[in-house]
Specification:
It is a single chain. This protein is α+β, with helices and mostly antiparallel strands. It has a single domain, classed as 3-Layer(aba) Sandwich (Beta-lactamase), CATH 3.40.710. It is built from 3 helices and 2 strands; from the N terminus they run H-H-H-E-E. It has a two-stranded antiparallel ribbon. Strand 1 and strand 2 form a beta hairpin. The protein is globular. The termini are far apart.
Length: 109
């Protein structure tokens, strides 16, 4: 949580380690975020200098290699678009997906 606060995310909480953080009890605010906060944090991590270039490449590669969201997101993207995503699931049907999608660069004619 301290790192998230340092990069300006005042909403997301990381209170426990894997696998304990997958417990999703009703009303429990531990290990939670909002869609807007998660998207903003991901954007900062991948497009700013919050991480080293090497760490950004590693994070992006992990997300590009994730294939869990294929039927959920990749299948509805326009042809030629790229996606980097991370999925997660917890108890009681909790599920989350965060993704970054971008069009393939085209050569100037």
């Amino acid at each position: 949580t301290a790192f998230l606060r340092q990069i300006g995310d005042n909403v997301t909480r990381l209170d426990r380690w894997e696998t304990e953080l997958n417990e999703a009890l009703p009303g429990d605010a531990r290990d939670t975020t909002t869609p807007a906060s998660m998207a903003a944090t991901l954007r900062k991590l991948l497009t700013s200098q919050r991480l080293s270039a090497r760490s950004q490449r590693q994070l992006l590669q992990w997300m590009v290699d994730d294939r869990v969201a294929g039927p959920l997101i990749r299948s509805v993207l326009p042809a030629g678009w790229f996606i980097a995503d991370k999925t997660g699931a917890g108890e009681r049907g909790a599920r989350g997906i965060v993704a970054l999608a971008w069009p393939r660069k085209t050569k100037a004619s």
